[in-house]
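Request: Give me one sample?
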Amino acid sequence: MTIWKDLVEGVIMGGSLAIGLISTYQVLISCSGIFRKRETIDRKPEKTFAVLVAAHNESAVISPLLENLKQLDYPKELYDIFVICDNCTDDTAEIARSHGVYAFERFDSSKRGKGYAIEWMLENLWALPRQYDGVVMFDADNLVDKNFLLVMNDRLCKGDRVIQAYLDSKNPYDSWVTLSYAMSYWFMNRMWQLARYNLGLPNTLGGTGFCIESQLLKEMGWGATSLTEDLEFSTRCIDRGIYPTWTHDTKVYDEKPIDLAASMRQRLRWAQGHFDVAGRYLFKLIGSGLRLRRLGMLDAAFYLFQPMYVLIIFCLSFLSMGKLFDVHEWLEMESVFPSWYVYGLSFIAYTLPLVALYQERLPLKAYLGYIVLPVFIVTWIPVFFYALFTRKNKVWVHTRHTRAIRIEELQQ
């Protein structure tokens, strides 16, 4: 019994120390997101863009996006729109062509998923007579601010090679689930992405609303066919010393699942892909970061470790509950850090989401997200546990979209 007690105490003490250090690092980084340096968009339109829209049976929502993209504040001769109709069995391709854009139809049941569809589309794109300076990627359920290409043109002209735009929701108030998603994104945009951009650390691609320099894509290839192709590609960039950057000056809006079951299916895919990419790149980034003394690579490794960090917290909390309910009276917990430090760090961590809401000038009803978000976070626990043991799964599951909202409705 004494050996078991010592072992459990050692695990809890060691885990508590690791959690404390990681939490301190994250809170300190997040605090830099409180400040935002206003950036000027002063470069005239000169870059050409291939705008790719990934679509799988998206006839219900694709029209508003195509109308939106055709009305961007950018010279029409400098960009073309391509819809990747990936294994579609509906009339997505016909709808795309009726809007006067290019529709490329792909049928390959052996390689299903957005990553494979993008790789196929890029091969077709490079074979076209016209070549483009940048490639922009959206999902079919998205909407986008009209200044999007102006911002991307400005950033490419200033030397950025991979740029992620602000990610927002087009249906934040449909349910407590969509509000929880939106709350997560509002916080991450400000206290994760902007914070790292302010410090010169690498940002992370968010699946949609990003721009990549064409020359970079030709140099390194897409090569991202996991369930989280965005994370895989951005990790490959960071491993090469190319840091994705962030812009807070233009937004992309996507549709969030309304019910919890659909949400958990989507997040399971994300978590499986995250564990898959972490398994292949985590220690490689740590090694490269230490060898080259690059904090950015170590920070990217820290992001890959996030699901395990959550699971460690849960497991330690579970062990600690023994004392709370006197199940293991013999286990005496000791705090690694002084109480004032723990309470102070916790206070800052729980306050930062409210600061993000305030700084993003969101309406009062958005603050309800702060109340429901803890419940949403708890639902990540079974998702992460299941994903950890099914991380080799490569079966892509489509998230159905139905909210055909137009950009004018969002900006009223």
Observations:
- The first helix runs from residue 2 to 31.
- The radius of gyration is 22 Å.
